[in-house]
Amino acid sequence: MDLGNKLEGTRATIETEIESFFSSAPPLNNSLDFSEQVDKFIRRNSVASGNGGPSRVVCVTSGGTTVPLEQRCVRYIDNFSSGHRGAASTEYFLKAGYAVIFLYRRGTCQPYCSSLPDDPLLECFELTDEPNIQVRQEHSEAVKRAISENHAAVVEGLLLKLPFTTIFEYLQMLRMIAIPMSNLGPNAIFYLAAAVSDFYVPWQSMAEHKIQSASGPLNMQLAQVPKMLSVLRRDWAPMAFCISFKLETDSKILLEKAGVALKKYKMNMVVANELSSRKEEVVIVTSDGQIPVRRNKAAGVDDVENPLIQLIVERHSAHIESSNL
Ligand code: PMT
Fold first, then answer.
1. Distance CA 4, CA 99 (A)
2. Among candidates 101, 246, 80, which has minimal Cα distance to 159?
3. Whose CA is nearest to atom 35 of ligand 1?
4. In the prediction, which pLDDT does 47 show?
5. Backbone angles phi, psi at 132, to 5 degrees
6. By alpha-carbon position, which residue is closest to atom 16 of ligand 1?
7. Which pLDDT score is estimated for 187?
8. What residues are in contact with ligand 1 under a 6 Å CB criterion?
9. Which of left, alpha, beta for 230 (phi over 0: left; psi -120 to 50: alpha)?
10. Angle between helices 84-95 and 305-323 (to 10 degrees)
11. Rounded to two decimals, what is the model's pTM?
């Protein structure tokens, strides 16, 4: 078999795997509402709308996907991600004038909430003369900032928050966002910080009811989740600026794996991070080389997302310029 035929064969296999993933996934609840919301948001923020709003739109994915083990799910496999990276990055993209579709795992970190306590309702508020409540003095600044900045972004139509839980929901939603975003051409960014499951139980082979422990040790075969990066790049939004992430716990293999992903999936950038140092440092891997980005408290840079998004915005501007030549 020559190389051309071999590549065609591999591509056909990936397409079949992707098709079979989507056709066997349980359909999204409210998929019509979902599509309408997304379309409206993109139209409002598109160049063509001419409403003076920002013409750059980024889809930030955040948090980990779950893999249910039962259709009436009692148990599931989870992917690690607090959602901090996605939430903080969303704030910086908004600051830089982007409209943001924040596709996040239910219950993970939200934009503008990083300085609130973990249990904001119980810890930020106190009872005064019942039935009134008020914000505790020590949290009032943080609460005011979170409410007003979030409110401004949502009311101005610049922030659309869409929650997912399972791998089935996440990938269907990503596709339903990516296809209309392709209308934005090079002005669209995909910033794929979500930790996406690599293995799953296909819906039709999943137990319907709670798996019984009385049956003894559990043997389960997990199928591989097809990597959607290639189809996102090639079919869903071919002109978009695509940034994927590479997370490893072994720093020795991190940069090599990020480089492979950059080429294999034709990403514009891969952000490489190691689990234990992910809040201090990331390395941006591009076809021009590697750029380390560090949090630098001494220089007043509170988090790594601030310089990271600045660099992405610069590179995205260059991408738009070169696409318009
Ligand atoms: O949320 P925090 O606690 O702040 O942590 C941030 C983070 C460490 C989760 C984040 O910075 C990060 O690295 N996210 C990606 C983690 C991950 O899933 O890496 P991966 O090597 O498994 O996947 C690489 C890329 O392929 C990802 O961009 C993912 O969107 C994509 N992918 C993965 C699996 C799959 N089946 N299809 C995909 O498209």
1. 41
2. 101
3. 227
4. 66
5. -85, 150
6. 195
7. 96
8. 81-85, 192-196, 198, 225, 227-229, 244-247, 273, 278
9. alpha
10. 60
11. 0.93
pLDDT tens track for 251-264: 999 999 999 999 99
Alpha-carbon distance of 241 to 317, in angstroms, equals 10
Pocket test for ligand 1, best of 166, 196, 264, 309 (most atoms within 8 A of CB): 196
Asked whether the beta carbons of 163 and 92 are under 8 A apart, the reply is no
**What pLDDT digit, counting tens, does each position of 141-166 carry?**
989 999 999 999 999 999 999 999 99
**Confidence check: pLDDT of 16 > 70:** yes
Longest dimension (CA), the chain: 80
Measured distance CA(170)–CA(173) in Å, rounded: 5
Atom of ligand 1 nearest to the CA of 232: 39
Residue 48 has pLDDT above 90, yes or no: no
Q: Please name which of 64, 63, 66 lies closest in space to residue 88, comparing C-alpha atoms.
A: 63
Pair 172, 236: CB distance under 8 Å: no
Q: Calculate how far, in angstroms, residue 91's C-alpha sits from the geometric centre of ligand 1.
A: 19
Please provide residue 269's backbone torsions phi and psi, each rounded to the nearest 5 degrees.
Answer: -150, 150
Q: Where are the beta strands (DSSP E) in 44-148?
A: 57-62, 66-68, 76-78, 99-105, 125-127, 133-135
Comparing 205 with 53, which gets the higher pLDDT? 205
CA of 78 to the centre of ligand 1 (A): 13
**pLDDT higher than 70, residue 118:** yes
DSSP string, 149-166: HHHHHHHTT-EEEEEE-B
* Type of residue at 65: T
